[in-house]
Amino acid sequence: MGIGWGEDIVLEKMRKMLVRDLMNREVKFIKEDASLLDAVWKMKQFGVSSLIVESANKGDGYGIVTRKDLINKLIDPDPGAQHALVADVMTRPAIMVPPNISVSACVKLMKRYNLRRIPVFDGKEIVGVISNSDIFAKFYPGPSVD
Q1: Which of 43, 73, 93, 114 could in theory staple to 61 by disulfide, Cβ–Cβ 3.0 to 4.6 A?
Q2: Average pLDDT over the chain, rounded to whole?
Q3: Distances 125 to 27, 111, 120 between C-alpha atoms, Å
């Protein structure tokens, strides 16, 4: 079953949407010297799958730590893993996009770097995070699965 003419127009409009129209504005931050267990607690508390990492040295820019980063380190049998810090597993610098980039361009960037989420930076501060889940929810509002 292919995409009909009407569906094609809708998809094209969605591709041209701007990231600011889909991003999650509830950004949660953590310091790079926080423990991984603190990061787990914060993600669970706020129901998020990533945290933006604030560097002790502002010149280093922002980083990002994801649920996957935490699982890979904490479930890893390396001795002392439970005492690791966010700085030990985070990605820095975080690849970021401006709020006025198209969803299509953002998805190309996500694909190129194998990312599931990207912080949105307005030139002064992080104003949101866009994830593949945000995009999927908008692109496919389709029938509910009950």
Answers
A1: 93
A2: 86
A3: 11, 24, 8
